[in-house]
Amino acid sequence: MATCYRHPDRETGLSCSVCERPICTDCATFAPVGIRCPEHSGKPQGVERVTRSVRRAHYEGSGALVTRALIAINIAVYLATVATGGGINSDRGTIFEHGVLAGPLVANGDYWRLLTSAFMHFGPFHLGMNMLVLWFVGVPLEERMGRGRFLLLYLAAGLAGAAGAILVSPCVLTAGASGAIFGLFGAGLVLERQGVSLFGSWLITVVIINLAFTFGASGISIGGHIGGLIGGILAMLGLSRFGRTHALYGRAGLFGYLVLLGVGAGSVVLAIWAAKQGCTAVL
């Protein structure tokens, strides 16, 4: 028998008359014509109603405040880098030298670069493109995940991107939010697989196009993008306890948050190891 797409442990014979996904009685809305799932009922039902109340109680509501704050921080860091001698491309100066990702310097103890580099960009075009994508992907994801889990996901993916960048190209100076953004792509793909359509069909198209640019264009951190993508997938799978509950509507529990922290901590350990195994060049 089919199982509810929100509660994989519940068998059911019901299905939504719009999308035809199987749903249990807690998720079903019995309309005058047919049965509707929460996404097509026009109002929150069952688990979704309870989840929204819990989010409000934990100050995780909507408004995309974290996404807005992340964009503001990225812009502020770029402007500060330019103002302190970084030039329009922000590829030099005090802030650049102390914040960019460089394998040899991470190996020497500059571990903060694994995080600060995710808020630095090489010029206005690099910054503008990343912030545009962050807005379109981050807003719907944050509003459905809640601020707390979204921020943890973003940071874990950013660290995973830094680890991937050092693992693949330890001697190349790397900066940008693209690793974390690819992590949001990965999280979105997991949600699509679980039946939550936040982005529609355009997400997979955007991911494919970005992967094509990653491998086809020069000057792009392949390791950073792939590392972030893998980190985002693992983090979102952890929040769903690897399929035992729903990533958005179920409780992540201690296990889910431990996986999130594990992705971040594991990325730091991997990055440090890769940096120490890499080249010995200095900035």
Global mean pLDDT: 84
- Approximate helicity band: 55-70%
Instruction: Give the C-level CATH assignment of the largest domain.
Output: Mainly Alpha
Q: How many discrete structural domains?
A: 2
Computed CA radius of gyration, to the nearest angstrom: 20 Å
Low-confidence stretches are: 44-61
Strand order of the largest sheet: 1-2
Distance between the termini: 60 Å
The CATH architecture term of the largest domain is Up-down Bundle
CATH topology of the largest domain: Rhomboid-like fold
| Number of separate strands | 2
Estimated share of beta-strand residues? under 5%
Identify the overall geometry. Answer: elongated
Query: Count of helical segments?
Result: 12
Structural class: mainly alpha
Q: H/E order of the elements?
A: EEHHHHHHHHHHHH
CATH homologous superfamily grouping of the largest domain: Rhomboid-like
The largest pleated sheet is described as:
2 strands, antiparallel
Characterize this entry briefly.
The chain has 283 residues and is mainly α.
Explain this structure to me?
- With 283 residues, this protein is mainly alpha-helical.
- It has two domains: 1-57, no CATH class; 63-277, Rhomboid-like fold (Up-down Bundle).
- Helices cover 60% and strands 1% of the residues.
- The protein is built from twelve helices and two strands, in the order ββαααααααααααα.
- The protein has helices at residues 38-41, 46-57, 65-86, 94-99, 103-107, 113-116, 124-145, 147-168, 178-193, 202-216, 222-239, 253-277; strands at residues 29-30, 35-36.
- Strands 1-2 form a two-stranded antiparallel ribbon.
- A hairpin with a 4-residue loop joins β1 and β2 (35-36).
- The longest helix has 25 residues, at 253-277.
- The radius of gyration is 20 Å and the shape is elongated.
- The model is unreliable at 44-61 (pLDDT under 50).
